[in-house]
Specification:
The protein is about 40% helix and about 5% strand. It is built from 10 helices and 5 strands. Helix 6 packs antiparallel against helix 10. The longest helix has 22 residues. The N and C termini lie far apart (about 35 Å). Bound molecules: zinc ion. The site of zinc ion (ZN) has 7 residues, from helix 1, helix 5 and helix 8.
Length: about 290
């Protein structure tokens, strides 16, 4: 499958709804049907609340007895439930975001009655189906089912990074699209400043190891290509994608792919560019996300 497409398409599908605290759910609010099961794990917050109000659903059809969740499911819930901060988990919980793991795009289509373009590995949507009329973060195991051996440890790590990206979109959604705000100290304005400063750096001082040969041009053009952001720099979706990338880059497990996210973190979050002392765009993202 084409994993590269998912990052762009995930945002394209993302709606613009705002989900406030009024939609907080204190009791189970969704009963999954086959092949999905709710997965209750010993967790104290999203995606499984301490009330038993699970927000995590395994839909790969192989683990119907809550006994042996697939490793990628464990990876997903571990990342989503433990790696995100308490503040972010509360945002996701109060806004009703659920996390689903499907085996494949086809399984997702069958469950939701919606068709997604082949190649999406993970996405966030504000309305998954009429059956589940709320937002969801969806992970597809197809991403790691590389025949004949199936998932590898690296795939589980990559899944965690995919979840980080989609949580970035979710937080942006929940908070009313701060990714599109302009003005001093706001994301769009600072990101434009950071882009210019990044392009002024000597490219030989940046670690481009692993950069695809098809990614050429200035520093930012190469980084944008590597992260597979397909939108023009003036398109709102451009800023929404980099918002999500910035959020993922700020998390302990980072973003997918790890190398360009490291560059993003090194130059758009801390240090490396003039003027020094500037609160850079990815810091704005993380500060915003971590503000209750
Ligand atoms: Zn995205």
């Amino acid at each position: 499958m084409n994993i590269k497409r998912f990052l762009a398409l995930g945002a394209m599908i993302l709606g613009v709804g705002f989900f406030g605290a009024s939609q907080a759910q204190a009791t189970p609010h969704y009963t999954p049907h086959a092949p999905c099961i709710d997965w209750n794990v010993a967790s104290t917050s999203w995606p499984t609340a301490n009330t038993g109000d699970t927000h995590f659903f395994i839909c790969d059809g192989s683990y119907q007895n809550h006994m042996n969740p697939s490793p990628i499911s464990i990876s997903g819930v571990r990342n989503a439930g433990q790696n995100q901060s308490a503040v972010v988990k509360t945002k996701l919980l109060n806004a009703g975001y659920d996390l689903f793991v499907f085996k494949s795009v086809a399984d997702y289509n069958a469950y939701t009655g919606k068709n997604f373009p082949v190649g999406i590995g993970s996405l966030t949507t504000t309305n998954m189906s009429t059956d589940h009329p709320g937002p969801a973060i969806v992970i597809l195991e197809e991403f790691c089912t590389n025949p004949p051996t199936g998932c590898t440890t690296q795939n589980y790590t990559d899944t965690a990074r995919l979840v980080n990206h989609e949580v970035g979109h979710a937080v942006d959604n929940i908070m009313g699209m701060p990714s599109l705000l302009q003005g001093t100290g706001k994301f769009v304005t600072q990101f434009d400043i950071d882009k210019q400063a990044f392009d002024l750096l000597n490219p030989n001082t940046i670690n481009w190891s692993g950069l695809p040969g098809s990614c050429t041009g200035g520093n930012f053009a190469k980084l944008k290509c590597w992260l597979n952001v397909i939108y023009p720099d003036t398109n709102p979706q451009f800023y929404r994608e980099f918002w999500a990338h910035c959020y993922a880059a700020s998390q302990p497990s980072g973003g997918y792919l790890p190398q360009p996210h490291t560059i993003l973190k090194n130059y758009f979050k801390t240090g490396g560019m003039a003027p020094s002392g500037t609160v850079r765009s990815c810091t704005i993202v993380n500060n915003t996300a971590q503000t209750p």
